[in-house]
Here is the input.
Amino acid sequence: MNPYASLLGGLLLMALGAFGIYVFRQQFLMVLEGVVGVAVLLVGVIFLMIGVSDVRDRLREKKEAAAADTGSE
Here is the structure.
């Protein structure tokens, strides 16, 4: 495909999207308000998963270090 056609198509879709947001701005803002809560919840879940994983890794490292110290004596 011609790269200029892709560029032109992308610009056209961006313009149509911006026009759609302008025309339906009330509905767009209502959806955006609803999505904010869900997005914050998902980010919180991701941070929680990262924290749990980090704590597990640290506990595993401590157990391995203790086992290595005990086994070398």
Notes: The chain has two helices and no strands. The chain has a mean pLDDT of 92.
